[in-house]
Amino acid sequence: MLNVVALMGRLVADPELRHTTSGIATCTFRIAVDRSYVRAGEERKTDFIDIVAWRQTAEFVCKYFRKGNLIAVDGSIQTRNYEDKNGNKRTAFEVVANNVNFTGERSGGSQGNYGGQSNYSAPAARPAAPEPVSYSVGSDDDFAVIDDNDDIPF
Fold it and tell me: What's the confidence (pLDDT) of residue 73?
């Protein structure tokens, strides 16, 4: 079976951090995701999707994201049944976040992907890439002439 969801959208409201009775951090938030197609003569439609994050992911979201921020979420769809105030049986569909990443501008104004994986620490500075090898240096004597008059050896 396969249950994988990847979404990118904007937070509809500030996320709120809560804790279960056993002290596990949880955060429920909603994102607005534009549909990828538009019918001729109509405006683009938007879906509002509920997301649930747990533990370090929940703390990460509540610490770094605010209403209107662009967010990327990957996770899985989960359903749960409940009874509303009037006694009607309802089913809730939500995405349980595995990873959450920045996708837009950081509050400092720079662009990029900052953390968001399971350890949520800032990425280590990357070592400088080695200088590319230049093949323009050399002479024609560096190459051997191949006699192609013979049969192919394979």
Answer: 95
pLDDT of 40 reads 87
Tally of domains within the chain:
1
If phi > 0 it is left, if psi is from -120 to 50 it is alpha, else beta; for residue 123 that is beta
Distance CA(59)–CA(64), nearest Å, equals 9
Give the tokens for residue 90: 């309802």
Under 8 Å between Cβ of 28 and 54: no
Which DSSP helix (H) or strand (E) runs through 64? helix 55-64
Structure tokens at 13: 């409201």
Q: Which two tokens stand for residue 154?
A: 């394979």
* Structural domain containing residue 112: 5-34+45-116
